């Protein structure tokens, strides 16, 4: 067992999908994985391993925000030997060209988190980016599946409820498509420990129009993103 994951050595696959919501992890395991078994219920942050098209894949809830996601990414890589992580999350759209339920692949992740500033003594604005190989595969897979996936930069924010919506508009002016809360930390930790990482997102709400999906949809209806993620992670 690691500190926050209750799996025995060998119970977690080298390939892991990372939804923030542990109940989305359960839904993904039950819907898409064969012979899925739960390996951890610690803090109810559920984790499952099964197979997808004959390849072993795990799905681990990572919680909300970069401190939580950092713990799971760190332990998965360092304590369980995970080599590939694909976050499958929800996001808020910052640009009008995105619609509710669109799928986004995050090529890079700006952040207002202090975590990386601490890593580099405040001297470097480190640029967390996706693994190029995983991103290229995801683009190919989405094309083959007829899914229109937007590829671009996103924001990983510490706060869900912002006091500075004006900054979202400014980021949109610089091409930033959407906001979520984990990608920068996952990209950074994967880079630090020599693993591959990618973030795929489904637009769950629209910052410009105020439209949003329900909690049930965020838990259970992001099938297109999950199918791209699963095919990508086993390729
Ligand atoms: O749907 P998940 O994967 O949790 O992702 C998004 O949803 C949560 C906020 O509602 C944050 O974790 C954010 O990143
Ligand atoms: O972090 C997030 C996730 C979904 N929607 C948002 O507005 N922010």
TrEMBL record:
GO biological process, one term: purine nucleoside catabolic process
GO CC terms of this entry: cytosol
Single GO term (MF): purine-nucleoside phosphorylase activity
Listed EC numbers: 2.4.2.3
CDD domains (UniProt xref): PNP_EcPNPI-like (cd09006)
SUPFAM superfamilies for the chain: Purine and uridine phosphorylases (SSF53167)
Catalytic activity: uridine + phosphate = alpha-D-ribose 1-phosphate + uracil
Domain Nucleoside phosphorylase span(s) in chain numbering: 15-229
InterPro entries in the cross-refs: DeoD-type (IPR004402), Nucleoside_phosphorylase_CS (IPR018016), Nucleoside_phosphorylase_d (IPR000845), Nucleoside_phosphorylase_sf (IPR035994)
Keywords, ordered alphabetically: Glycosyltransferase, Transferase
Keyword Cell inner membrane among UniProt keywords: no
Family indicated by similarity: Belongs to the PNP/UDP phosphorylase family.
Protein name as it appears in the record: Uridine phosphorylase
Native source organism of the sequence: Dactylosporangium sucinum
Gene: deoD
